[in-house]
């Protein structure tokens, strides 16, 4: 963006638990300071006081970055802001915006709120607005919540270069082209089919604990949370929160058929995976099993 002034940012909250806001505030302090030095956050319902949402809606000023947190509804009876639906407010905001970024899984894919049948009309931003005339494609940052560094990297790339490569789900390729499995410290256990338990430091969490790392796109084990850790490093199975299919039923359990995981890692033919699994299970790696028992 060539404008010498700081790009303006509006953070619109729809149907949300505020988790992505909390995630942003947990960003590396130096990066967060750089964000506020580089962008002008003119509205956030919890972090700014100079302007109200009505001020933004009634203004003729353009918005450089519109960040949307939460799923959207056109049903005022279910969820409303200022006596109107989140859909109607967002319709006005999108027309003012240069870049529209869905922050988190609810905004990107509908998330938890959209899974309930009684929540009629609750959808993602893209489901409501993908066919409207926008200056740029809606960018989806899946995650529950999204990693703060993913949001910051996306905004700085757009600010400096004006474009970003996206995958088929509208996610930045730079951040979502790899799998959560890549960089996982438990990969050797995965290769030799040595299963661990929830909360433990050793063992793979894929075969029994429901870990979705081998089929979930995200850089969680490359860009670490708080610069030090990730779910799998802390003994928590990946729940696949960056994917459109999140959330699933019974997320902490691996669905199996005759003892074999029903879903296999991405990119591996099921027959080949079953053969590899059978061979690996015939080996007993004393070093790995000893670490598991310690």
CATH names the topology of the largest domain as Rossmann fold
CATH architecture of the largest domain: 3-Layer(aba) Sandwich
Which descriptor suits the 3D outline?
A: elongated
Helix content: 25-40%
Order of helices and strands: EHHEHEEEEHEHHEHEHHHEEHH
Major beta sheet, strand line-up: 2-1-3-7-9
Low-confidence stretches: none
Helix run count: 12
Q: What structural class should be given to the helix and strand makeup? A: alpha/beta
Strand content: 5-15%
Largest sheet: 5 strands, parallel
Give me the count of strands: 11
Q: Please tell me how large the radius of gyration is.
A: 21 Å
**Any idea what the CATH superfamily of the largest domain is called?**
NADH:ubiquinone oxidoreductase-like, 20kDa subunit
Whole-number count of domains: 2
What's the pLDDT, averaged over the residues?
A: 89
CA distance, first residue to last residue: 55 Å
What is the CATH first-level class name of the largest domain? Answer: Alpha Beta
SSE blueprint and pairings:
Elements: E1 8-13, H1 19-25, H2 29-38, E2 40-43, H3 53-58, E3 63-69, E4 72-73, E5 80-81, E6 84-85, H4 86-96, E7 97-103, H5 105-109, H6 111-114, E8 122-123, H7 125-129, E9 139-141, H8 148-161, H9 173-176, H10 187-191, E10 256-257, E11 260-261, H11 270-281, H12 286-293
Parallel strand pairs: 1-2, 1-3, 3-7, 7-9
Antiparallel strand pairs: 4-8, 5-6, 10-11
GO molecular function: 4 iron, 4 sulfur cluster binding; electron transfer activity; ferredoxin hydrogenase activity; metal ion binding
InterPro entries: Cytochrome-c3_hydrogenase_C, NADH_UbQ_OxRdtase-like_20kDa, NiFe-Hase_small_C_sf, NiFe_Hase_small_N_sf, NiFe_hydrogenase_ssu
Main location: other
């Amino acid at each position: 963006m060539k404008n010498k002034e700081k790009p303006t940012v509006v953070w619109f909250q729809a149907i949300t638990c505020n988790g992505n806001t909390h995630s942003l505030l947990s960003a590396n302090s130096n990066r967060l300071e750089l964000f506020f030095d580089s962008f002008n956050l003119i509205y956030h319902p919890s972090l700014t006081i100079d302007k109200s949402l009505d001020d933004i809606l009634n203004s003729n000023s353009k918005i450089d970055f519109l960040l949307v947190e939460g799923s959207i509804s056109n049903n005022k009876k279910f969820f409303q802001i200022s006596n109107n639906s989140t859909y109607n407010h967002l319709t006005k905001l999108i027309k003012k915006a240069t870049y529209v970024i869905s922050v988190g899984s609810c905004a990107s894919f509908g998330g938890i709120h959209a899974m309930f049948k009684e929540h009629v009309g609750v959808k993602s931003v893209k489901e409501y607005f993908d066919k409207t005339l926008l200056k740029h494609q809606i960018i989806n940052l899946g995650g529950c919540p999204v990693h703060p560094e993913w949001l910051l990297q996306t905004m700085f790339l757009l600010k400096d270069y004006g474009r970003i490569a996206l995958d088929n789900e509208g996610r930045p390729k730079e951040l979502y082209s790899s799998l959560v499995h890549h960089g996982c410290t438990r990969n050797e256990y995965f290769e030799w089919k040595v299963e661990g338990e929830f909360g433990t430091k050793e063992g793979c969490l894929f075969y029994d604990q429901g870990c979705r790392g081998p089929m979930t796109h995200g850089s969680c084990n490359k860009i670490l949370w708080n610069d030090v850790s990730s779910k799998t490093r802390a003994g928590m199975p990946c729940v696949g929160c960056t994917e459109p299919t999140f959330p699933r039923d019974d997320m902490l359990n691996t669905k199996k058929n005759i003892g074999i995981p029903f879903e296999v890692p991405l990119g591996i033919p099921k027959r080949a995976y079953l053969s590899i699994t059978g061979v690996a299970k015939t080996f007993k790696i004393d070093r790995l099993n000893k670490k598991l028992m310690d």
